Amino acid sequence: MMLPDLFALTSEASAGGSPESQPGVLRLNEIDQDLADAARDVLGTMFFTDLVGDGEPCNCEPDSLLGVCVPFSGDAEGVFSFAIQERVAEALTVNFLGMVDTSPPSRQDIEEVMRELGNMLCGAFLSRSGADCLFALDSPQIERPAPPPPFTRSWTLDESHSCLKVKVRWDRLGVPPNETSDSSQEQQPS
Amino acid sequence: MSLRVLIVDDSPAMRAYVRRTLQLSGLPVEAVFEAGNGEEALLIVGKENRDESKLDIIFTDLNMPVMNGEDFVKQLQTQETDKEIPVLVISTDATQRRVLKLRELGARGYISKPCAPELIRMKVEQVLGK
What we know:
The complex is a heterodimer of chains A (190) and B (130).
Chain A: H1 31-46, E1 51-54, E2 65-74, E3 77-85, H2 86-97, H3 107-129, E4 135-137, E5 141-143, E6 153-157, E7 163-172
Antiparallel strand pairs in A: 1-6, 2-3, 2-4, 2-5, 3-7, 6-7
Helix pairs in contact in A: 1-3, 2-3
Chain B: E1 3-8, H1 12-24, E2 29-35, H2 38-48, E3 57-60, H3 69-77, E4 87-91, H4 96-105, E5 109-112, H5 117-127
Parallel strand pairs in B: 1-2, 1-3, 3-4, 4-5
Helix pairs in contact in B: 2-3
């Protein structure tokens, strides 16, 4: 069915999925690429930053990381989480809220924006992995300390060589395709 | 024409993003109302959508506590005086099944997050027929 213009979706994740996509079936064979594409899309469009390094070692102290987790349910269940340095969370908050020439964002501002970042990262990733699946995202929760390794994926951001680490845990897959038969375990870092 | 807008989202950060985008868009925004869920939004619609000063457009998220975006759109459609207000859904949930369902429920448009400010402005202009 053709959608009228006002329902035309802009994200590449939302164009109806890959040719082989089926309702209720996740496409997990390209999880690394889907995570990277989701992060690029969200950070580039709404936070004015980009990923510049992929899987590079990060020297940040674990206790300097702020974490956010987003439980999701529906055609699959699990938890999406990410960790980011506190100073980078502040910089991204300034970008997102357009806080130019104002006082620094409050801790509450930073946490609200990081929750929204978690919501968007998780949604953008799931839309890519299950373009014809239905999901419900729970309210994102701040985690201090941040979730421990291993992470599914990590990148360097162009904000002062900082890092973004994401983690996906699948608790239930809807109708797993053959190639994802062992994907019920936490994804290993790449 | 000046615009009276309602933004429904449980994320204060996202409400601030949409509000700022509208204020910087060049659109003639007269008033922006905010609600944290569908139930709060219905109260604001009941109070602010009157003959002498109607709401011109509503932005709503989908995943919200108390009353989600789908139920809010459904409820809005049951009110003769309110169902004409154009509703634009802004959500990370951009699956085609969800979008088609919202269209059937009466939403007038869909914006998938992440969304650039220009896209929000463009969708508003489309909804208002500019």
